[in-house]
Write a structure and sequence with these properties.
The chain is an alpha+beta fold. It has 2 helices and 8 strands. The strands form 2 sheets. Strands 1, 2, 6, 7 and 8 form a 5-stranded antiparallel β-sheet that branches. Strands 3-5-4 form a 3-stranded antiparallel β-sheet. A hairpin with a 2-residue loop joins strand 1 and strand 2. Helix 1 runs parallel beside helix 2. It is globular. The relative contact order is 0.23.
Length: about 160
């Protein structure tokens, strides 16, 4: 099995440090990719999930940051569904507008709505890597004083 794609080596949740720094990692999951995100707050969790998705969609391309930020508002039924809908909105923007969100200047979240100011990079063609974030296996929970979420990305 290939090594996990991540900002650091793959570790079990118990091995991850508790504290205020956010992190993310991708774990292989049969024809899908599981994204695990850890952060101190729900705002930071959504920001880190967006950063992870943007990193994946940009595929290491040179980043020419669009100078104009975009305001994005997403609403959903609860915070788990909000995480999925947030990621799917970011995938939609990448696919339909050829704009990959990579920097999250301001993220304000409640359990059912997120408002964010986001900067992205224009891409010449749609990334077409992630089809959607799914509800399958979705979790958002407190763990070691941090919020941890797992969401499966259909690729």
């Amino acid at each position: 099995m290939p090594a996990p794609i991540s900002g650091s080596e793959s570790k079990s949740p118990a091995d991850l440090p508790a504290g205020p720094s956010a992190s993310h990692e991708f774990l292989e999951h049969v024809s899908e990719l599981k994204l695990r995100v850890r952060a101190a707050t729900f705002d930071e969790l959504l920001s880190e999930a967006g950063t992870a998705l943007g990193t994946l969609l940009a595929r290491g391309a040179p980043l020419r940051l669009d100078p104009l930020p975009r305001d994005i508002v997403v609403s959903s039924s609860d915070r788990e569904a909000l995480l999925v809908d947030w990621l799917n909105e970011l995938v939609f923007l990448a696919e339909t507008e050829h704009w990959v969100p990579v920097t999250f200047d301001r993220v304000e979240a409640r359990d059912t709505q997120v408002r964010a100011t986001v900067r992205g990079v224009p891409v010449t063609e749609a990334p077409a890597l992630v089809k959607a974030a799914t509800h399958h296996g979705l979790r958002v929970e407190q763990l070691n004083g941090m919020l941890q979420a797992e969401v499966i990305l259909d690729i």
